[in-house]
Amino acid sequence: MTIRQQLVCDLTVLRAHVQHAHWNYRGMNFMSVHPYLGDDVLGTVSDMLDWCAEDLRRTGDHVDARLETAAQMSTLPSVPPEGVVYAAYLSNLGDMMRGVCYKVYDAFDEFNPSEQSSITVYTDKLESYADFWFRNTI
Length: 138
Hints:
The protein is mainly α. The protein has helices spanning about 5-25, 30-60, 65-75, 85-105, 115-135. The longest helix is centred in the N-terminal third of the chain and has 29 residues, at about 30-60. The termini are far apart.
């Protein structure tokens, strides 16, 4: 599996984590966290996933974003079965976002040079979201 296909799997699982947190978060700052998860974070993760998949296709590779493949091949943990999400989960979500960013940095040279600025926009956003979780969950 190429590192770019690995990114597709990790982003697919990260998107599931963000959606799970958006639907199930309970706790302090609910009214500010809930729309932020749904609009900003979920939108960025979805856009980044789409960009990575399209970049993979531009090189002629097959994109395997089936849920079962993503769950098996992702380096991220699976989404927990419990329904209620608290601050510790959001902190873990921040760690997952950073992990995806590190993987992008490792694969940076494999992306089309004319497109590298696009992926940098997504990693910058994910890192700012990860920092937000750290600041707001300690």
